[in-house]
Amino acid sequence: xxxxGVEEELLLVDGRTGEPRALSxxxxxxxxxxxxxxxxxxxxxxxxQQLEFATKPQTDMRDLEEEIRRWRAExxxxxxxxxxxxxxxxxxxLEVSPTIGNDERHQWLKEHFGLTAQxxxxxxxHVHVSVxxxxxxxxxxxxxxxxxxxxxxxxxxxPFWQGEDSGYASYRNRVWGRWPSAGPVEVFGSADRYHEQVxxxxxxxxxxxxGMVYFDxxxxxxxxxVEIRVADVCLDPSTTALIATLIRxxxxxxxxxxxxxxxxxxxxxxxxxxxxxxxxxxxxxxQLIHPVTMRPAPAEAVVRALFDHVRDALEENGDLLxxxxxxxxxxxxxxxxRVQRTLLHRTGSLQEVVAECVRRTLA
Length: 363
What we know:
Layout: E1 4-13, H1 24-32, E2 42-43, E3 50-54, H2 61-80, E4 85-87, H3 104-113, H4 115-118, E5 124-130, H5 134-144, H6 148-155, E6 160-161, E7 164-165, H7 171-176, H8 191-203, E8 217-219, E9 225-232, H9 237-259, H10 269-282, E10 287-289, E11 296-298, H11 299-309, H12 311-316, H13 320-333, H14 336-347, H15 350-361
Antiparallel strand pairs: 1-3, 1-4, 1-5, 2-3, 5-9, 6-7, 8-9, 10-11
Helix pairs in contact: 2-9, 5-9, 6-10, 6-11, 9-13, 14-15
GO molecular function, one term: glutamate-cysteine ligase activity
Keywords: ATP-binding, Ligase, Nucleotide-binding
EC number: 6.3.2.2
């Protein structure tokens, strides 16, 4: 059974006002003093208003969800020590002036990318799934491409930007797409071709290194995994676990197709970009672009098509019933974007939206 690991980026906010706070260094320092020795779980990100954690690889999705809940709670505990809170929000609902970190890498990004880097206060969720080789990994990347927008729609959790409704379910996706290497990619066909393209991108001088190859899905530089990077950080940890479960199912399904000689779908990058835009715009509230036909279809029909596509893998991994329940719950209550807009409609206050999302982060 393939192992799965999750990286989540969390927003650091003032517990009273809901405004983002540039306190990542203080929170990391608090974690480093913790006698439980969990400081290596947490890392800084581009902006000092962010904190990232990474789970261990897990094969049981219940254990994965439990660990996500644990590290969210630990992040909240460390943040509380410096008079802050954590929120699983993919963008700040309130106005913010992001503060880029002072390390060499982040300052390089600031210098070379200007406003794109300065405004890039977005929180994503990255899912790593183990693969046996780069050849298998690239075969998986080639075959999961059209299904990634559905995952974005399910995870969408960033409707607000600088105190305004963006009109999108995932505005994080639109802001993240400003990086020149971000988004969907072509069919590579082989690991050699993948590595050749990555090398050419770095050699262009536009990117600092391979870490800046921000494909929606890529081979990990550090682990024997494929890394799917398309999702917003999810408000509810059960949604994160569902996304990770479906991604493992996608990887299993794609690897089986590769072994059976089933070729990848040849949808062009232009169509995939449109599908990603549609998913970011609509979330689960309207139509999406169907991964097979590339034509409009109701969001629930597209999500269920994804579920049916990976059903055999879910069953083999023992994930079918749990994923069915989690999906039913998501479709009933909505993604984070729907929850945030409902909270604003009910309270009339973005501060109250943030306060409730702080509570739901630790649900």
